[in-house]
């Protein structure tokens, strides 16, 4: 496959006023460069295990985290980027939060965090119209967030691109004593699914890698065989659980 060293390749996306973000404490107009994460006014260095240089990526894909308020979107992204968990008081995202550019499988992923609150929905719709991948989160300890999955899928089908890569993440798994037993209905959504924990880091990297692999596969001009996202995730999740103490 021939690859161009360009920030705007095949999968490159444009967003309404990219960079003019409001977020959790970042204030209006907060910006983050491709190599840093800005949060609460603090510039966080990139986690060393994830390459963030904008010099070596081939194609920029836009990945967005969506889902109800409080399901853990920001924490998942911070866990992925910084390897840390944002414990303590919960500050809701306002509009669209920090923009992160990372390189995964030699593809640049531009990752956006969105506000889960209803009042920001029109803003987030405008942004995920050109998203290449959406990670839809719910909280496995919160039934309302599970019940809202269908409504989210309806919105996604209405506003996102038809071929958007979509994955459902049940976050906060194995963190709380009282987990809801609501997984049985998941197949009905027909969307690849996996469990994550932003708190422990369980499967967080896998979620982003799986999406990157799917995007990578789709960008091949003549993929010899179809990449099966759910199969890949199942296989990798098994190997995670088999090796956990
Ligand atoms: N136990 C546990 N708590 C979590 C986890 N992920 C997030 N939380 C907590 O859940 C709360 C909400 O997390 P956020 O990441 O801010 O939620 P959000 O989805 O970004 O919310 P909005 O910005 O309002 O859309 C915070 O108090 C987090 O500490 C997790 O995996 N396990």
Read across the widest sheet, the strand sequence of neighbours is 4-5-3-6-7-8
Amount of helix: 25-40%
The topology string of helices and strands comes to: EEEHEEHEHHEEHH
Terminal-residue CA separation: 40 Å
Please mark out the parts with pLDDT under 50 across 5 or more consecutive residues, or reply none. Answer: 1-23, 25-56, 241-245
Shape: globular
How would you characterize the largest beta sheet? 6 strands, mixed
Please tally the β strands and state the result: 8
Q: Indicate the radius of gyration in whole angstroms.
A: 17 Å
Number of helices: 6
Mean pLDDT: 74
Give me the secondary-structure category: alpha/beta
Strand content: 15-25%
Small-molecule components bound: guanosine-5'-triphosphate
